Amino acid sequence: MSVTPRRRMLLGFALANACIILVAALLWWWRPLSPPQIQGVLLPESRPLQAFTLLDTAGNEVGRDSLRGQWTLVTYGFTSCPDVCPATLAELMRFRSRIPLTYDEDLDILFYSVDYRRDTPEALRRYLDFFDERLRGLTASSRHLAGQRAFERSLGILAELEPASPGGLDSGDYQVLHGVTLLLLNPAGELQAVFEPDPAGAGLPSFDVDTLAADYVALRDYLSARSGTRLSG
After folding, report:
1. Band of residue 15 on the pLDDT scale cut at 50, 70, 90
2. Rounded mean pLDDT of 47-57?
3. 184 and 161 together in one domain
4. Number of Cβ atoms within 10 Å of the Cβ of 60
5. Phi and psi (nearest 5°) for 177?
6. Domain for residue 24, yes or no?
């Protein structure tokens, strides 16, 4: 059966349109992903941590390897903090109840003490158990000052001990000043994002639990899609 010139022309148009649709679909599918807008900062490339040695709540020395293999959300402060630190830990417990199980089962929440003079491993464990026995903790000792500096510098942790008497820090009479952020490490143990307190909050810095949960899930989804895998929620 012969094909008329008109039919041949229509067939050519149909094939051309099909190719255009296919190319458009491929461009849409492989389009660059836009990073989520979170209350904080998502690092374009994760930042490796410097080597460090600190103490966990069992008194064991640990380093960077202890932060690998899972997502880790780091908060920091001191156990004798009267307000911000316990409030942040309580918010993180509510945050944990807000996120789907898929996003929680490979997440560790870690509290780092910036006041090792008072926060021994035993004291830190007792403090964290008040909130949740699953919480991990890190502290230091006078033998781990290099590790303390490396850890804080790697994560951008701001903390200062301010003596309140002429006796200095050794007298035990000092104030602890520190920033308020949440630091997210990816399963490679590298800094991936920084979550900031609610700018609309009044008084002490605090985190909106619903915003934090939504940002965390969106960030995980984005990074999974960017790496070519998807998580089920």
Report:
1. low
2. 98
3. yes
4. 10
5. -115, 135
6. yes
